[in-house]
UniProtKB/TrEMBL annotation:
Keywords: Aminopeptidase, Hydrolase, Protease. The lineage of its organism: Bacteria, Bacillati, Actinomycetota, Actinomycetes, Streptosporangiales. Belongs to the peptidase S33 family. This is Proline iminopeptidase. Its EC number is 3.4.11.5. Pfam families: Abhydrolase_1 (PF00561). GO terms for cellular component: membrane. PANTHER family: HYDROLASE, PUTATIVE (AFU_ORTHOLOGUE AFUA_2G14860)-RELATED, MONOACYLGLYCEROL LIPASE. The keyword Hydrolase applies. Residues 30-265 form the AB hydrolase-1 domain.
Length: 310
């Protein structure tokens, strides 16, 4: 479906019901809103792997402004503040209350922008392989460590020049280093990339000019947060995840020692078990809080004395 949000049309897909029959009542599931990476990619990277979470939460996928099936907006609006505000506006339009927001890679930066600009709105954040501060030298060093000097040179050229030529070299020399698995990209990854609707102009423009720093804004985020990172990720290195946890109150870090940027591919069983546990915990806490609020409200009600007949 297409949803009008902040002057543009966003493509949205939904998997799973929000209400499930549970005996004599209906059980409401939380909403898990998934923000893809890139920019210049789309939501299909989450399919089909993340659908295994649909029994716990209603999954809402979105192609963010300028991405995938949502292309066509003004490039002047392609920035982290606007992308973050779009998340809030999309929830308001669809009637989504207290979403759990998962952001992967660049989508994690969008999630942090949204949560810091609209504190109190999300129920929780899942920040997967992402950064709060763009550090070119750190990224270049990450590719040097994982793939050697030629890859480091290609990464620096693309991330400063952003031309079709440097983009092509980055894909050839750097993309294989996103995963330490020598079989990467595997056939499922190749299929996923083929299904994606890319916007290379957005990718080249943003990645070559990205100079954002959200670290000072993280302190305003009050919801629970799970930060997951691969210890061999060159593009969003482990140091970036540690930086997020230091700035985000109450955040929890889980490190995947055998993984790079594509944790679900290399350590999927542990990864999805972790997500299930976190979502279940957040849902249970929300249920307890709602019950406590009801008890508090009931205790605070004043019972009017009976009226006497005159």
């Amino acid at each position: 479906m297409r949803v009008q949000v902040n002057g543009t049309s966003l493509y949205v897909d939904v998997e799973g019901a929000a209400l499930e029959p549970d005996g004599y009542t209906m059980r409401e599931k939380p909403t898990l809103l998934l923000l893809h990476g890139g920019p210049g990619h789309d939501h299909t990277i989450f399919k089909p792997a993340y659908r295994q979470l649909a029994d716990l939460a209603q999954l809402v996928y979105v192609d963010q402004r300028g991405n995938g099936r949502s292309q066509g907006s003004d490039p002047a609006t392609w920035n982290l503040d606007q992308w973050g505000d779009d998340v809030r506006a999309l929830c308001d339009t669809l009637g989504i209350v207290k979403p759990i927001v998962l952001g992967w890679s660049w989508g994690g930066a969008v999630a942090m922008s949204y949560a810091s600009r609209h504190p109190g709105h999300p129920a929780a954040l899942i920040l997967q392989s992402t950064v709060a501060r763009w550090d070119l030298d750190r990224v270049v060093e990450g590719f040097r460590t994982e793939a050697g000097e030629e890859a480091a040179t290609a990464a620096k050229a693309f991330l400063t020049e952003g031309t079709p030529e440097t983009f092509a070299a980055f894909g050839r020399l750097c993309a294989p280093a996103y995963s330490p698995d020598p079989g990467f990209p595997a056939e499922p990854d190749i299929q996923a990339m083929a299904r994606m609707i890319p916007n290379p102009g957005l990718t080249m423009s943003f990645m070559s000019t990205a100079r954002f720093d959200l670290t000072a804004r993280l302190a305003s985020v009050g919801c629970p947060a799970l930060v997951v990172a691969g210890s061999r990720d060159p593009i969003t290195p482990l140091g970036a995840a540690t930086e997020i946890v230091h700035g985000l109150p109450g955040a929890r870090l889980e490190v995947f020692e055998r993984s790079g940027h594509f944790i679900p591919d290399t350590e999927g069983e542990r990864f999805f078990a972790l997500l299930r546990s976190f979502i279940t915990g957040v849902t249970a806490q929300a249920t307890l809080a709602a019950g406590a609020d009801q008890v508090s409200q009931a205790a605070g009600e004043t019972v009017a004395p009976p009226r006497l007949n005159q």
